[in-house]
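It is worth pausing here to work through a concrete case rather than discussing structure prediction in the abstract. The textbook approach is simple: state the sequence, then state the predicted structure, then interpret. We follow exactly that order.
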Amino acid sequence: MRYESLQAKLPLAPAGEMVLGLASMKQLMAHFNHPENQLPTIHIAGTNGKGSTAKMLATILQEAGYKVGLFSSPSLVDFNERIQINGQPISDDQLMAQVDRMTKALGPDEYYTEFEVFTGLAWLTFEANQVDFVVLEVGLGGRLDATNIIERPLLTAITKIALDHQKILGDTLGEIAGEKAGILKDGIPLVLYPQVDEVKRAILQKADQLKVPVHEVNPNDIGQIVVNQQGHQSFDYKGQRYILNLQAPYQVNNAALVLEIIDVLKGLGVVISGQAIKQGLATVTWPARFEKIASEPDIIIDGSHNMDGILSLKEAILTHYPASKVGKRIAIMGMLADKDVAHVVKEITPIFQEIITVTPHSNRALPADQLADMIAESGTKVQVAESDPVALQMALEQLDKEDILCIFGSFYFVGYLRDIIKKSAISIIKSVQY
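Step two, the predicted structure:
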């Protein structure tokens, strides 16, 4: 279901009224006897990688025979993608059943923010479907995020922390880490991604206050990473060999975090076989995270939108598409105005021969012509497209089969282009001029 159709049916506060805090979320879920506290939950915060980590974990638990609910954000096109059960987005009928349940329970003048309602719908859906586990991704920050009303999760996990949303979370890595560490609960285990010292100090200080057992990923336990011809990565972790069906180099660290989460779950009595772990990592998919959706020419979709994500995207492109093995690198790029666009442009644009700019579908979008002006100053050839389909056509007209097209930036446009390409793959490939 598209967002516009869903929003019209929900008890939403006026647009722009976003106040971080937990009181209203607790009030909302009290109508339903707090299902969030009755569902075994793994709660995941972080700046980058939390969606990939959540998806890998959910896939492994499903392979182990469990019924798994996954709540993530944002979606690429349809809202349903955000609430999944055993890897499948919920149906419109499932969604509307919970919308009706929610609207009937609320008072006539009772309204909530969009994310609060979305989070509530996820918990109601998981309760109705009697899932065995919920894998829950934080929306923004952690301490005051709507997902953080869970009283006793099975465990918490924090992925890589970097600068993002500074106006809300703080100007330094330490301040941001403190907000993310707000998901820690008394005595509940934490699994921690390798962090820089400033971040690690802030998180461990909070963990010590709450007597939280901390399980850290040691990068030295990761060894012998090999990329095969299909782009799959194989790697060693603590003496075991794994194949990962996600191509970006940074995903190996996320996979190591998942393996540590699995160890903690097993210590809590959850039965997960080695075969389920290996099968889950070998088959996991996660759209728009350095995702190849076409070949000859290769088309890559990536939702990198902050500086850390852009650096990871750059590393992935140079690893899989070095100058010696690729023709032209062309990009379609769109960004939100509240990101560090100047530094992103400076870092990423030199690796492309040409960039086509678009305006994302958001009231926070940076206009395509303004982004183009910034790119032009960097010396990279740039064109402005009036729409997503026009941008795609402009790119395809220039591509040969040995080239690469990378569509990256805000999730508010990459999902739409991904949808267009997936639905018309044959005609798109035929349109390429050899």
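Step three, interpretation. Confidence is low (pLDDT under 50) at residues 429-434. Residues 251-267 form the longest helix (17 residues).
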